[in-house]
Amino acid sequence: MTDRALAVVRAGALTTVQDRGRPGHAHLGVPRSGALDAPAAALVNRLVGNPVTAAVLETTLNGCALRPRSAVTVAVGGAPCPVSVDGRPAAWGAAVRVPAGALLEVGAAVAGVRSYVAVGGGIAVEPVLGSRSTDLLSGLGPAPLADGTVLPLGRPYGLPARVDVAPQPRPPAELVLRVTPGPREDWFTPRALRVFTSRPYRVSPAGNRIGLRTEGPALERARTGELPSEGMVLGAVQVPPDGRPVVFLADHPTTGGYPVIAVVRHTDLPAAAQAAPGTPVRFLAVGRH
């Protein structure tokens, strides 16, 4: 058995393997998937000397605990959280050396939702359709981590970055999502369109990797009935029967039957991945591209 492996001591609420996803398979019903906060995942990879395409771990809210079988270099970023090695505090946002058999603890997020753990060499699970990402909707890729899971690691790519700490954006106190009109905005009343971009919403605790759900004023339809299923894109803002907008994230379905009122700019989606339940949400109309 190779010593290039990582044993999961505590899996946490939801920890998955993620990379940049598997784009280009929507016609097969396969979402893109991949790290929800892609800039954070890319940064921790750079800190340990990996290419940005290497697979990392994405934790949710309460972190995880890991024990490498050989000495490794790790970096933790994304949502700020305490990091320790065998009970001793270690740096967040910087490369850290973890000896063989030592316990790496990635603690609960003190702000935001998702922390990212990169290991030199990357998580080397078998790729599916060109990606190692866990896709919660289609079930592709490795299963979410469980206590006792052992993850293979690749060989280190290069030297860790020589920085004391890498600056990263703080999770949003208010989530501002810039939106362009969606293909079905005519399914909503003029009042609903005004409410959508002028009234505050909040992040619902019911959200997940598939979509960010909101709490707030219901949007009134101008048309009744349902659509035939049609294609859905990353960032689509779909409005289900309860009238509360849902922002589609990386594991979103590739088709859907509820009307799409708007589409969020891709550059705003990493912040959506870090918006904790209760965070105020504002949809800002910016016109068409």
From TrEMBL:
One Pfam family this sequence matches: CT_A_B
Boundaries of every Carboxyltransferase domain copy: 27-289
Keywords from the named record: ATP-binding, Hydrolase, Nucleotide-binding
Record field: transmembrane: none
Matches recorded under SUPFAM superfamilies: Cyclophilin-like
Record protein name field: Biotin-dependent carboxyltransferase family protein
Lineage: Bacteria, Bacillati, Actinomycetota, Actinomycetes, Kitasatosporales
